C-alpha cells in the first residue's frame, strides 16, 4: 500500500516538532552557533524580570511566613528555569523538551495553587512561551488554551468575576514571546538554508568541472594515444618520416585544442558542436583503423539537442577507442535521438563508468534519457533520446531505433 499520507519533511505541520538543529550545525564557529541561543535566552530573561514584582507582591501578602517563603522560592526557581530553558531546551530530545515544559508549568502554577489566587496564573505566560518554542504547535496551543480557560473558570467560580486584564496579560505576553521565538527560528533556518545553497552550488560546480574535464581529456588523450601508436608503427615499419611528421602535426593541433578546451571548461565558456565532434570522431576512428559510418549532416537534429548529442558522440567514440576491438563504428541521428553502435566486444564497457554517468546527468538536465548496453547483433550500443518536441517535427531521414 502506498503511503498517501507521506509528508515532505520540509513542509510545515502543526504536529511537527520544532527543529532547532541549526543552532549546533552552523559552520561559522562556536560564536555564530551561540548567537541565536543568546538572543532567545536574553529575551526570555528580560521578560522574566517581571517575576520580581510577583515575588514582592507575595512577600507583602497576609499569608503565613513559611507559605510565603515557599511561594517566593518557587517563583525564583521558575524564573531561573525560564532563563535556562531557551538555552538547553532546543538541543534536548523530545522527552527532555516535554520534561522541561512540564517542570516549568508546575513551578509557575504552584504559587497560584498554594496561595489560592487565580491571578497568579498569568505568570504561566513564560512556560507557555517555552512550550511554543519546544513543542509541536498543536500541543503548545492546546496547553495555552487550557491555561487561559482554566484561569477564566477559576476566576469566575472563586472570585465571582473575571479580571480580563490578567487574562490579556497571559495571552499577550505569551504571544509576544512566541513571536520572538518564531522570528529567531525562521531567521536561523533561512541562514542554514543559505549555507546549504552555497554548499550545493560549490558541489554542483565541482561536478560540472569534473564532468567536462573527463569529457575533454578522455576523448583527446585517447585519440592522441591512438595517433602516437600509429606514428610509432609508421616509423618502425616503413620509416616514412613525412607521414610520421603529418601525424605529429595533427597531434600538436589536437594538444592545442585540448588545452583551449580545458581553459574554456574552467571558465564555463566551452561549447560542444555536434558537427565538430563527428569530424573529430571520423579522424580518431580512422587513426585507430576503425571504419566509420557517420552522418554527413546534422540538420535534422533539433538545435537545443546538438550540444548534448555532441557529448554523446564524443564519449561513445572514446569508449570504442579505449575498450573495444571494433572494426566498425556507426552513428545514426534523428530529430531527437542519436545512436552509436560498434561491432566490437562489449566486455570492457558493459558497466557504466564516469563518462556514461556524466552523459546521463547531461541528458537529465535537458529532460532526456540514455540507454547503453550490448547491441542485439553484437558489439555495444549507446542511445540518447531528447524530450519529445512540442509539435510534430518533419520526418527524420533515419528511422528511430527501437
Automatic annotation (TrEMBL):
Superkingdom per UniProt: Bacteria
InterPro entries for the chain: HATPase_C_sf, Sensor_HK_TwoCompSys, Sig_transdc_His_kin_sub3_dim/P
TM spans (from-to): 38-55, 67-88, 100-120, 126-155, 167-187
UniProt key word Transmembrane: yes
Annotated protein name in UniProt: Histidine kinase
Alphabetized UniProt keyword annotations: Kinase, Membrane, Transferase, Transmembrane, Transmembrane helix, Two-component regulatory system
One Gene Ontology MF term: kinase activity
Keyword Kinase: yes
Domain Signal transduction histidine kinase subgroup 3 dimerisation and phosphoacceptor, residue spans: 205-273
Pfam families: HisKA_3
Location of region: Disordered: 377-402
Amino acid at each position: 500500500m502506498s503511503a498517501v499520507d507521506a509528508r515532505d519533511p520540509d513542509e510545515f505541520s502543526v504536529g511537527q516538532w520544532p527543529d532547532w538543529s541549526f543552532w549546533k550545525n552552523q559552520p561559522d564557529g562556536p560564536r555564530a552557533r551561540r548567537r541565536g541561543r543568546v538572543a532567545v535566552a536574553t529575551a526570555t530573561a528580560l521578560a522574566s524580570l517581571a517575576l520580581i514584582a510577583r515575588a514582592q507582591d507575595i512577600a507583602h501578602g497576609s499569608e503565613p511566613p513559611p507559605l510565603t517563603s515557599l511561594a517566593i522560592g518557587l517563583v525564583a526557581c521558575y524564573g531561573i528555569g525560564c532563563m535556562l530553558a531557551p538555552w538547553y531546551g532546543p538541543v534536548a530530545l523530545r522527552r527532555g523538551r516535554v520534561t522541561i515544559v512540564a517542570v516549568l508549568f508546575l513551578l509557575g502554577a504552584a504559587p497560584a495553587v498554594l496561595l489560592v489566587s487565580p491571578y497568579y496564573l498569568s505568570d504561566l505566560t513564560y512556560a507557555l512561551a517555552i512550550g511554543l518554542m519546544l513543542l509541536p504547535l498543536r500541543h503548545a496551543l492546546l496547553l495555552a488554551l487550557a491555561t487561559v480557560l482554566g484561569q477564566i473558570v477559576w476566576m469566575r467560580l472563586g472570585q465571582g468575576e473575571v479580571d480580563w486584564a490578567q487574562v490579556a496579560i497571559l495571552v499577550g505576553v505569551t504571544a509576544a514571546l512566541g513571536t520572538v521565538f518564531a522570528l529567531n527560528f525562521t531567521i536561523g533556518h533561512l541562514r542554514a538554508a543559505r549555507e546549504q545553497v552555497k554548499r550545493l552550488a560549490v558541489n554542483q560546480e565541482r561536478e560540472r568541472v569534473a564532468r567536462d574535464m573527463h569529457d575533454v581529456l578522455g576523448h583527446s588523450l585517447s585519440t592522441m594515444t591512438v595517433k602516437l601508436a600509429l606514428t610509432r608503427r609508421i616509423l618502425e615499419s616503413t620509416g616514412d618520416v613525412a607521414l610520421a611528421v603529418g601525424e605529429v602535426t595533427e597531434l600538436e593541433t589536437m594538444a592545442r585544442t585540448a588545452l583551449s578546451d580545458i581553459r574554456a571548461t574552467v571558465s564555463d565558456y566551452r561549447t560542444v558542436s555536434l558537427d565538430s565532434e563527428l569530424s573529430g570522431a571520423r579522424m580518431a576512428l580512422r587513426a585507430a583503423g576503425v571504419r566509420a559510418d557517420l552522418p554527413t549532416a546534422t540538420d535534422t537534429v533539433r538545435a537545443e539537442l546538438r550540444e548534448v548529442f555532441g557529448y554523446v558522440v564524443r564519449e561513445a567514440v572514446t569508449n570504442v577507442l579505449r575498450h573495444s576491438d571494433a572494426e566498425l563504428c556507426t552513428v545514426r541521428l534523428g530529430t531527437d535521438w542519436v545512436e552509436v553502435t560498434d561491432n566490437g566486444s562489449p566486455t570492457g564497457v558493459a558497466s557504466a563508468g564516469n563518462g556514461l554517468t556524466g552523459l546521463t546527468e547531461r541528458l537529465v538536465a535537458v529532460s532526456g534519457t540514455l540507454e547503453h548496453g550490448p547491441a542485439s547483433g553484437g558489439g555495444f550500443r549507446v542511445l540518447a533520446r531528447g524530450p519529445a518536441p512540442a509539435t510534430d517535427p518533419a520526418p527524420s531521414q533515419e528511422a528511430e531505433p527501437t
